[in-house]
Specification:
CATH topology of the largest domain: Heat Shock Protein 90
CATH architecture of the largest domain: 2-Layer Sandwich
Number of domains: 4
Mean pLDDT: 84
Number of strands: 21
CATH class of the largest domain: Alpha Beta
Structural class: alpha+beta
Radius of gyration: 28 Å
Low-confidence stretches: 371-398
Shape: elongated
Oligomer: single chain
Strand order of the largest sheet: 12-11-15-16-18-17
Largest sheet: 6 strands, mixed
């Protein structure tokens, strides 16, 4: 039988490496809760044998018990293979975190990494299943945005992921497991309260660094508002190519909107809400970065989720479950893979970076595809250059819709259930301004209101 080092198995040439072995035991326990150590086998799987005296097994057992806290009681046995003796130490324990010589370690591959104070805290919280989102909020039911909840329930019903209708806020939150008695959970606060700790800072920079910015905004609101505002901001400030086929106009973004949307909702869903730092969107000349203050799980890499079959490791399971029910996220753990596949489909370079303060998704702009046929949807910041051939009978240019109206059209295309108030928050305009523009669009027969003010939706006609 061949023994190979792994996250659960450590090979040691002899008991002279007992201290290192004890550290490995604590690291493996903190990661997998069980494992094995072998003495007499080198790390390249070569059997070298281990001298075993009268008290050898007892001394190993005692050393492990004395230097690992909480104390464990391993099974230590002597075995023979390839005509050589070796020692097998089998151990297990559920009382994480485990410390070796007063320090905590975590198994990463076949190596042991000492945990930082923050990582140790997270390990303890994980053990006790204590999540930030499960805490009781200081907000009350009256702080909930009722329209947001109604729109959410409508979308969740349409997705067939819940089987109940909106009745009242208290009942809905109870059914979504977002309350304890009459108290809101913090997860409900960030999902449905406009006034909360969340914010997204968005900026456009002149070059490829953060020395000079052309525009900067700070968004506040619940998760759904922040998602919509972030999407709109990126779509307004990235480049688009305009193609005409006959009388039909097609607008093609330099970065897939679907990939952008997936990255935004993932950054809001999986961020570390205990961290006061906000999410960030940075648009550079050559790339778009979407950052969230939530470090990637130390036991996994982005590649594990993109090309492997790794299960999702949720920092905020209640928030994730709520977003799943409304189809804002799909299958857990599939977000990075969906972003990667979407970018691969359109030949967009995408990078996932695990940094000390969080996680970044970087979309790189294509110079070749958009070098000549560019326009920017932000008013006055670019021109349209159309190179597609237009049949003679269609030479008449279609009426141009001003950008301030185009933004509203694009926004309600993404979410037809948005109310005037939600549109005003999302687009950073007054309710009166939004109402006036909506009336204009309805009068021009560009959009149409289907159903009542509450419970209805917008339909784009042109």
């Amino acid at each position: 039988m061949k023994y190979i080092e792994s996250e659960k198995v450590e090979l040691k040439a002899s008991t002279s490496e007992l201290k290192e072995a004890i550290i490995s035991i604590s690291a493996i326990l903190n990661k997998h809760s069980k494992g094995k150590i072998y003495f007499g086998i080198k790390d390249d799987s070569t059997f070298v044998g281990q001298a075993i005296g009268k008290n050898t097994l007892r001394e190993i057992s005692r050393a492990i018990s004395e230097h690992i806290e909480p104390r464990i009681f391993p099974k230590v046995s002597a075995n023979k293979a390839n005509k050589k003796m070796y020692i097998e130490v089998e151990f297990s324990g559920q009382d994480i975190p485990y410390f070796a010589y007063g320090r905590a370690y975590m198994r990463v591959g076949d190596e042991n990494r000492q945990l930082s104070a923050r990582e140790l805290e997270n390990l303890i919280l994980k053990k006790n299943k204590i999540f930030w989102e499960n805490g009781v909020s200081e907000k009350s039911l009256k702080d909930i945005n009722v329209d947001t909840v109604k729109n959410y329930i409508a979308r969740a019903n349409e997705a067939k992921r819940i089987n109940f209708k909106f009745s009242n806020i208290k009942t809905v939150l109870h059914k979504l497991n977002l309350s304890k008695g009459n108290k809101l959970l913090k997860s409900a606060e960030v999902l449905f309260c406009d006034d909360n700790l969340m914010e997204v800072q968005a900026a456009v920079f002149a070059g490829t660094d953060k020395l000079t910015f052309l525009d900067i905004k700070k968004f506040k609101g619940n998760i759904f508002n922040l998602k919509a505002q972030s999407e709109t901001y990126i779509k307004e400030h990235m480049n688009w190519r305009a193609n005409l086929e006959g009388s039909r106009r097609e607008e093609i973004p330099e970065i897939s909107v679907r990939a952008i949307t997936e990255a935004i909702v993932n950054s809001l869903c999986h961020r570390d809400y205990a961290n006061p730092k906000g999410n960030e969107i940075a648009i550079f000349k050559d790339r778009i970065e979407i950052y969230n203050p939530g470090q990637f799980p130390e036991e996994a890499t982005p590649e594990d989720f993109i090309k492997g079959k790794e299960h999702s490791i949720l920092r905020n399971p209640l928030i994730a479950e709520t977003l799943y029910k409304s189809s804002d996220i799909e299958k857990w753990g599939s977000g990075l893979k969906r972003i990667y596949e979407e970018c691969e489909k359109y030949k967009i370079k995408v990078e996932f970076q695990c940094i000390k303060t969080g996680f970044v998704v970087i979309f790189y702009k294509s110079k070749k595809k958009f070098s000549e046929k560019l326009y920017n949807k932000d008013a006055g910041k670019g021109t349209v250059k159309i190179t597609a051939k237009v049949p003679e009978k269609s030479q008449k240019s279609p009426r141009k819709i001003p950008d301030k109206y185009r933004i509203i059209i694009n926004t309600i295309k993404e979410n037809p259930q948005l109310s005037r108030k939600e549109l005003s928050i999302q687009l950073n305009e007054t309710e009166e301004t939004i109402q006036s523009r909506l009336r204009k669009l309805v009068k021009e027969k560009i959009i149409k209101r289907i159903g009542p003010d509450k419970g209805g939706y917008w339909k784009v006609l042109k």
